Amino acid sequence: MTTTTFRIGDTTIHRIIEMECGFTPALEFLPKLTPAMLDESRPWMAKPPALDAEDRLILCFQSYIIRTPKHTILIDSCVGNDKDRPARPLWNKKQDTVFMDGLKACGLTVNDIDYVLCTHLHVDHVGWNTRLENGRWVPTFPNARYLFSKIELDFWLAENEKELVAPIADSVIPIVEAKKCDLVTSDYGLDDLVSLVPSPGHTIDHYAVTLGKTGKDAVFTGDLIHTPLQAKWPDLAMRIDYDGNQSSATRRKFLETYCDTSTLCCFAHFPTPSRGYVRRFGDGFRCEYVTD
Where are the domains of the chain? Predict the structure, then answer.
């Protein structure tokens, strides 16, 4: 199953899962993770499975779509097709119909998306921003406005000037050139139901997304947290964090804010079902999953 649908009040939320698999050895992905910490975690990492038989973290690569009475909003656009990603064989020149089939299963077409919110501009969050058409990268969602943090975009454009950053070149710059993007601050309010929340550290100006008139109905994390191990130990920085100390502080603040509340937390990369409620777990935290 590549899609899941659930409701919060008058809002319908879809998950489109592009892939879910053992991805990177846990001890590489989280450099401060020790073998003893990993061994201690095996029992509770077993359900839902968050670690495969080779001790690789099982990560879900997915988009969330929020359908409010006003707008249809896609949060992060996964990996994409036809992209040159030689460092990741699973992603390199990928050609499948999984994402588009998922969109269709939600009763949507690319023309129905009003906004694309990119929590940050890493490769697995911008891939379907564009699609290949007659040898050119064109916006996948022709009627959408793409919301980029200006600080985030400026940083990556500068990096791309120094040395080609393929996801920026093929999945971000074409959106800018097509004049389809809106540059915002990471605390921007899209409307009375959907707002951005600054959550820097994994990248220079990463944002999360909140839902509800008070922002407390649901929160979409992006990559401020990748795996349940980082809930148990919030100080475990991910290996490519822009600022590991800042990402740890952001993660701890997030977990403290939503712990023991009724806010549904929708995680970008946690294994299926990928959503639930933050609860205390010893000195750290855990996700009390909501079963699909």
Answer: 3-217
